[in-house]
Write a structure and sequence with these properties.
alpha/beta; 343 residues; 10 helices; globular; 3-stranded parallel β-sheet
Length: 343
């Protein structure tokens, strides 16, 4: 700020791109000299990453003071950025709005501490907890406002994941379709589309395999898959991850470890009841987004939100905390957090 005026703003738009500080300093230009820089996370100072460190750019800009909301938990930073700024003669204050900054940075902090993406489980369901009819019909349980909100969510995560059964039944595109709508410009940030498919049953004509130049796509499979099909898919430009299995399915945890190693920090599960059960059973879901329509299906053979076997004891329940409610047209969005012992 110069004499109480904001001269530059920035945010980290995508992995591999310039950090927020660089965008803000570029916008400010020479007006940054003598100004105060406010950041939600300690500026980085290490070079073992895709982007140059921010600390040298801050020092060169002539910024007089830096207000840091929270220290970076990354061991490669962990206070070193603050120390270098102070050694350069820049005044640094730490801890302003620290709790709010931790909430803003929760996905990054989770990834740094666990090596795994932050996982959101999203589902559209009826009031009685059904996500599809007995024949698998699910389009559409919720209304247009809820579906638009899902696209907004997709644009904020690194990966959108489904199981192969969802592909076989619904043939989804799994991309973000917000271009041209109010408040959204072109192009919109697109997540990696990921399909769990232990035997590679996915047809090559599936919509999720099309347009990979614009919509990056990956398949998580196992050694049960045909080597020939793996090579054919890779030739189409699709990332095929051959992973260990748990029973007859892809190991969810090993897949998330691989995604985390690739620098992917958030994942949204949009699969069916069995994939939901696998993620919940592995203790890997951090947050749920449940879009609830004011309708009832009933029946034992309608598909419920969570597949697999029910626990025999209430003591084995999954507790959802910090529950928030929001109306989206006629539907209701329920958001809640899960705390997992395995993380």
């Amino acid at each position: 700020m110069a004499k109480g005026h904001v001269v530059g703003r920035g945010y980290h738009r995508q992995a591999g791109g310039p950090h927020a500080e660089i965008h803000a300093l570029d916008q400010a230009g020479s007006r940054a000299r003598g100004a105060t820089l406010y950041v939600t996370l300690e500026p980085c100072c290490h070079t073992e990453k895709r982007t140059p460190p921010c600390v040298p750019a801050i020092i060169d800009s002539g910024v007089r003071r830096v207000v840091v909301a929270m220290r970076d938990p990354n061991p490669q930073v962990a206070g070193r950025g603050i120390q270098r700024l102070r050694r350069a003669g820049i005044a640094v204050d730490v801890g302003c709005l620290q709790r709010e900054a931790a909430q803003l940075n929760e996905v990054y902090v989770h990834w740094v501490k666990t090596g795994l993406p932050f996982v959101i489980l999203k589902s559209a369901m009826t009031l009685d907890g059904k996500i599809a009819t007995a024949t698998g019909e699910s389009q559409w349980i919720t209304g247009s406002q809820a579906r638009d909100h899902v696209h907004q969510l997709r644009s904020h995560v690194d990966v959108v994941a489904v199981g192969v059964n969802t592909v076989l039944e619904d043939d989804p595109q799994l991309n973000v379709r917000l271009a041209g709508r109010k408040g959204y410009s072109t192009p919109v940030r697109q997540p990696v589309r990921l399909v769990f498919d232990s035997k590679l049953r996915i047809p090559l004509t599936a919509r999720v395999l099309q347009g990979v130049e614009q919509f990056p796509t990956a398949l998580a499979t196992t050694t049960m898959a045909s080597h020939g099909k793996i090579e054919r898919l890779r030739a189409m430009g699709i990332e095929v991850l051959v992973l260990p299995r748990k029973g007859t399915r892809v190991s969810i945890r090993r897949c998330l470890q691989e995604l985390g190693n690739m620098g992917l920090t958030s994942l949204m599960v949009e699969g069916g009841s069995e994939l939901n059960a696998s993620f919940l059973g592995a203790g890997l879901v951090n947050r749920v987004y449940l879009y609830v329509a004011p309708i009832l299906l009933g029946g034992r053979n309608a598909v419920g939100l969570i597949g697999g076997l029910s626990p025999k004891r209430l003591a084995d329940k999954k507790v959802v905390s910090n529950v928030r409610l929001r109306h989206l047209g006629d539907d209701m969005l329920i958001v809640g957090d899960l705390r997992n012992k395995t993380q």
